[in-house]
Design a protein that fits this description.
alpha+beta; Alpha-Beta Plaits; nine-stranded mixed beta sheet
Amino acid sequence: MARLDRLLANLGYGSRREVTDLVARRQVVLDGAVVRDAGARIAVGADLPGRMTVTGLPLDPPAPLTLMMHKPLDVVCSHREAGRSVYELLPPRWRARIPALSSIGRLDKDTSGLLLITDDGPFLHRVISPRSHVAKRYVATLDRPLRGDEAAVFAAGTLMLESETEPLAPATLEPLGPARARLTLTEGRYHQVRRMFAALGNHVTALHRDRIGGLDLPGDLSPGNWRPLTPQEQVALFA
């Protein structure tokens, strides 16, 4: 159960005083009836957006919320990094949600593909924990043709990146063409895919992530679009 004014304030509808004003103006409806008490206690469940409207629109999904996004190029994943961010692709009100939405890992500005965004801290840490073994798969387009030994080098678990002291965990490479490859990683070091190919004298000209764990980027989710992750998809993530 949650107080209505605190629930709506945490979802970004305004301060508690502003929410009280919404209620006074008969803008909050639950199960077809106008809510008259901003302090009313409400049972919060996944079905609430189907039962409550605010200013005539369905209530935003309550926490915990996890989204999948097809991250386009030229946007960043950090709240602090300069430039347009993935959070600007979401409804403006969502930037005021408590708890805040955060990306699960990052894709740099020049990388597109599957990105997960959540306000669920335990879920976030489960995905990024090395103990979960959640792999991430990328498609890389290269400046030069593959030389032929990349799969063996990446799978050996001995490749050292510049300025690092620990070798990379084994990774799987599948050639997709003369200068294109699919690479699956079980760790997420800074610019790892680009640095791996650079260590072998090549340069990544385009990079796209198409899978996290057992979850594929849906073909009907176009760049810049997003949707909530279903419970079944959350399970598939760890399959």
